[in-house]
Structures are given as C-alpha cells and as structure tokens.
Request: fold
Amino acid sequence: MGGRKVVGNGRLVTPAGVIEDGLLVIEGSKIAYAGPAASAGDALRGGTVVEEWDAQGGYICPGFIDGHVHGGGGADAMDASAQALVRMARAHAAHGTTALLATTMSAPHEQLLEVAHVVRRVQGTATGGARVLGLHLEGPYINPERAGAHNPVWLRPPSAAELAQLAAVAGPAFRTVTLAPELPGAEAAIRWLVERQVSVSLGHTAATYEQALAAVDAGARAATHLFNAMTGLHHRAPGCAGAVLADARVRVELIADGVHVHPGALRLAYQCKGAAGVMLVTDCMRALGCPDGEYTLGDLPVVVRDGQARLRDNPAALAGSLLTMDQAVRVMVQEVGVPLADAVRMASLTPAEALGLAHRLGQLAAGFDADVVVLDEALTTVMTIVAGEVVFKR
Reply:
C-alpha cells in the first residue's frame, strides 16, 4: 500500500544522538522526513496521511541489519528452501531485524550451491518479515583447530573453482565469506573475492597477528564473531583478535548475548573500535521462538536449554545462539554501558556500511528505505516496518 504514513510521539534515534520529540514521515517505501516534530510542517503539507502509528514515547530506530544469522522460527538457511528463509525472516522481524544475511554452515559444495541458489531467488522479494540481503558463507574454508560447531568432515582450504561456481550461482546475493587466512590459498581467495565486491571476514582461525594483518592487507575488512573461534589476545602474541582490534580498517562482529563474550570484553571491543567499527550479530540458530529440546545446526545435533545452544556431543561448545538483535542492543546499553545511539548504530548503520548499502539502509533520513523498528522503554521491539509496511506489531 502506498500513501503517506507517520510514526510519531517517540524519540528518534540517529547516529549523532536522540531527538526527544521525533517524527518520521514515510511516502511509499521511502522515508520522506525524519527529525523534530516541530519542523515537520513541509513534509506533512499537501497530502493525506493514510496511517499514523503512535510510538508511545518509545525509541524510533533504523531497522536492524543482522549480517550473521543461521536460522530462526524452526527454520535454517541450510534447509535450502524459500519457505525456510521466509520463516527466518519473520521470526527475526519480531525482534527488530529488517534485513539479514542468510548464513551457511560448512557442508559439501553441492549443498552450498543449493543454498546459494535459494538465497538468490529470495533476495529482494517480500517475505512478510526482514529483507534477505544475500548470503554469508561461513565455512567450509575454516581451520579445523577452531571449528566450533562446524562439522570437521567438511572443512577444506579455499577452492578457486568452488568460489567461482558459488559466485555464478549466487550472483549479487554473494555478500560475505568467512575464512581462515592461514589456510593454503587463502590470500589468493581474499583478493579474488574483494575484486568481486564480496566482503571477506576473518574467522574460525588460528592465525597469528602477522597472518591476520597480511589478510587485511590483501583486502579482508571484517572479523567474524570477535573473540569466538579465533586466536585470542596475549601480550606477546596478539593473535587474530589483537590484529583486528588494533587495525582501523577492520569492522568486527560481536555476539552480544553475555554468554559468547563477557561484558568486559564487549566493552574492550567497543572502546577499541567505536560504534563505527562494531557490527552486532546474532549468530542465531533455528530454535529461536521454539521450545527447549534437540535441534540441528548444519548437520550436527544441538541441545537447546535455558536460552543456550550447545553441541549435544560436546556440551562445552556453543552452537550458535538464541540471540535477537534487540536483545544485543539491550545488552550493549544495559550491561556494557554503551550510549543507545551507538548501540543502535552497531545494529544498523555499521553493518550497512560494511555491505556497501549505507546509501539506503541503516539511517532514518529522507530518501532512505523505510526500514524502522520502534522499541519501548525497556528496549524491546513493539513494531517493525520494512519498506514502509508493518511486518510486526506487538
């Protein structure tokens, strides 16, 4: 439905801070005005408001962009079906996510091609939930020493032939590849991917500080779930974590659930990188919104209990999360002490910048896509809007 829509009586969250008496005007699928209500006269003149939503004093934020999510609502990207992607997109929209990258697990090449094909088909279509922006290939080009919840059977060095096939099948949906830079052929793979505008993220890696920096020099610009499944920070061997924390060229993912990363380490990352250098992600698996029990992540059995997902056969190993983007924002604000505007930036504009989409996503500004989340005083999602249409309302 077209027409003019208004979100008012709320506090508008911008990268620069919070506008206390904010107003958002939407025309069709785009934002026509975002700013103080007192200055919205021109934006409201000469047209009919077809819908008006009351934020009830809550926070009007740009929609959250999750660049690393495996599943939700009982579905997983590895199901390789459009229906699974739609279920994921709707489950996460209920928690403020308006766009996501469907993220794989390590698997046989033919299975990854099937997932890539489905993601390309769904990319850009209406899901009734979050937009599917494309594919994040996490594995199989990762180090068995840092496999985490990936099945070691499928791990292998980067293959030029496999990457070329994946790029051909996924097309513009091929967005991000996580790989371990110390593997044979990794540097050539990084250069090949960067030439094709695919973001390379360092992860599941035993790389030294020097190997990680060499990968950044080759074009890698992100780090997958910082601190998790990578060489940690030691004062005589800074490792991959030290390299990406110290290098301003790199944005880092953080799983801010208070389980994967201690709040003190979250604070360290924020102080090193700033809001422009941190991307909040969920790494969520299929059990979001489902009861405790046994599920799968990739082809490995996972037990979900008390809000945590762990490998059934190795309970010490976390297997993704049940995190949501609004919860990640809450943790950063309430447990880490980050200003709300910065926490929201880490969930919206920073990932948009990393994906080359900051010209239309990640901010509430005239001309941008009308992807919006309204949070209440407790920073819980009460309404999610994608392309000007309400996809979730509490």
User: Anything to note?
Assistant: The chain has two domains: 4-61+362-393, 64-354. The longest strand covers residues 4-14. The first helix runs from residue 41 to 44. The two ends are 21 Å apart (CA to CA).
